[in-house]
Amino acid sequence: MICVLTGGTGGAKFVDGLRQVMPPEEITLVVNTGDDLMWWGLYVSPDIDSITYVLSGLLSRERGWGVKGDTFLCLQAMGQLGEPTWFHTGDRDLAVHLLRSRLLAEGKTLSEATSVICDKLAVKAHILPMSDSRVETRVDTPIGELSFEEYFVQRWYQDPVNSVRFAGASDAEPAPGVIDAIVSAHAVLIAPSNPVTSIGPILAVPGIREALCRAQGKVIAVSPIVANAAVAGPAGILMAAEGLPCSIAGIARAYEDFLDVLIADTRDAGAAEALRGNGLRVQCTQTIMRSAEDKMALAKTVLSFAAAGLLSDKPAARAAAPFGSVND
Amino acid sequence: MICVLTGGTGGAKFVDGLRQVMPPEEITLVVNTGDDLMWWGLYVSPDIDSITYVLSGLLSRERGWGVKGDTFLCLQAMGQLGEPTWFHTGDRDLAVHLLRSRLLAEGKTLSEATSVICDKLAVKAHILPMSDSRVETRVDTPIGELSFEEYFVQRWYQDPVNSVRFAGASDAEPAPGVIDAIVSAHAVLIAPSNPVTSIGPILAVPGIREALCRAQGKVIAVSPIVANAAVAGPAGILMAAEGLPCSIAGIARAYEDFLDVLIADTRDAGAAEALRGNGLRVQCTQTIMRSAEDKMALAKTVLSFAAAGLLSDKPAARAAAPFGSVND
């Protein structure tokens, strides 16, 4: 089993590659729920949705979120009723929000609702919310504290950021299966997701960071920062707000207590060399995922490092076999 | 002010005519909510929706329900998630259900939620649910008791009907404004709706039947039965189950304690003559509404009888003036 910590569009792209190069039923995903919001009275979990759509083949790859080929007539009608429309919920997409909301209203946990939806969509990988408790990412800005989706989607991450906090985290528990998935996995992969608001909320749930420190497999992160800039989104701004340099060194520092291997882009070869001086294993490869081939290639490479880590006294070429061949 | 008791597709057609021949702001509609259902976790009020769509010009006249030009992608996606799809909720239509459900969840009454939605859709007529309490039409059949929508939509009203009851009615109160609208109206019109399951639930709310008996204006019903058959739907079956003949005499009996004028189809001229023998005023006109012109003509005719009733000691021709001219 491989365990993947993920959130955001970078995470979804990485998982899209991964599901194509290894059996999905051997993947457990621990997904950020800090972005979850009540929208039109429905419970929406953007990162769980994206991962569910990726794994069911429904994700719109053009947009990177929502259902491919979706329409937005309900959204348009909501606008005509004077309701907010800044969070773009498609007509097909609404079905998942409706079903999840009904299951939650009936008393099911978010884990249970996620499992029902995954079964219905024939998702074979195991999607776990980081927690069944409500943990809300709050972004403090000069205009006040915003939810992550308000900051990111409604306001296009244009506000300066003072700090980020995870409301409710201290009282939250990891969802059932999360700790075991991390501790017992052959390898734990941290997707190229924003370390502050995609992976940060997961790490803020008491017990998860400790589980990563005692994980039996190697913990391998793919850097979402390439050449001192975020591949997409506000990772750089948010890292700066949290006192982390916007560089692979910043990523290494965010995960320093549990990280075994950092996978950086080949453009960061120099920075990688400097980091290695500090004792961390840093591997460079092509990390930008533009095409389906890029995604699969990155997934294969990461899995080969995972296999090498697993069987560190054996040659990497042999160790790579269970995870498929490596193409670079 | 004119007060209209309505429900079902016959009622919606009648209101569609009425709104075009008199100022909508002078119409108060008391609408059946016995068909209301929880659907996909949302509160759906089919008759309030139809009347709202009629009055905002959004109703699909082809289907007689829902929003014109609507699509059904969410419905399709719900089917793929294994959820029921027998109640056809369109993508645009969903917006109203979402908004109403949110307003109810926030503690608003059905009257208040209806008023908000009407404001947003620039509906000038006053739509009142018959009650803010839950009154549920239950249809007893050999396979068990069904909700009205289960009986009517899901099972195509194919089941024999033993009886009909209105669960919750005895504890219900008329919604704010209902009694006053009935008592003080210049005329109360009963739309050509099913007397058992469209008008019956309204009459089952304590106080409404009494208000009709003491209404200051004339109470005028348009028969939904023509030539001993329902114009559409299961009215005949349901009337038989309630011991009412499927005829204009059955309609007269259903409303006998408060009815001043019964408007029957010209095809029922013979039956009308027999009824007149019992002291009821019965007027015959063309009541089948196939075209927009039919709807307006029926509305004008009914209003002319209302005006005649209002000013019974004056010639009908003069009395008709405030309501527009009569075309037959």
Your description of this structure?
- 2 copies of one chain form a homodimer.
- By secondary structure, chain A is α/β, with parallel strands linked by helices.
- Chain A has a single domain (1-36, 126-328), classed as Rossmann fold, CATH 3.40.50.10680.
- Helices cover 39% and strands 18% of the residues of chain A.
- Chain A has helices at residues 8-21, 46-56, 73-80, 91-105, 110-120, 148-154, 178-184, 200-204, 208-213, 235-241, 248-254, 269-276, 292-310, 316-319; strands at residues 2-6, 27-31, 37-39, 42-44, 126-129, 136-141, 144-147, 163-167, 187-190, 218-222, 225-226, 229-230, 261-265, 281-285.
- In chain A, strands 5-2-1-9-10-13-14 form a 7-stranded parallel sheet, with helices on both faces.
- In chain A, a hairpin with a 2-residue loop joins strand 6 (136-141) and strand 7 (144-147).
- In chain A, helix 1 (8-21) crosses helix 13 and helix 4 (91-105) crosses helix 5 (110-120).
- The two termini of chain A are 23 Å apart.
- The relative contact order of chain A is 0.14.
- The A-B interface holds A 40-42, 67, 70-71, 73-74, 76-78, 80-83, 91-96, 98-99, 101-102, 105, 117, 120-121 and B 40-42, 67, 70-71, 73-74, 76-78, 80-83, 91-96, 98-99, 101-102, 105, 117, 120-121.
List the helices and strands and how they pair.
The structure is a homodimer of 328-residue chains.
Chain A: E1 2-6, H1 8-21, E2 27-31, E3 37-39, E4 42-44, H2 46-56, H3 73-80, H4 91-105, H5 110-120, E5 126-129, E6 136-141, E7 144-147, H6 148-154, E8 163-167, H7 178-184, E9 187-190, H8 200-204, H9 208-213, E10 218-222, E11 225-226, E12 229-230, H10 235-241, H11 248-254, E13 261-265, H12 269-276, E14 281-285, H13 292-310, H14 316-319
Parallel strand pairs in A: 1-2, 1-9, 2-5, 9-10, 10-13, 13-14
Antiparallel strand pairs in A: 3-4, 6-7, 6-8, 11-12
Helix pairs in contact in A: 1-2, 1-13, 4-5
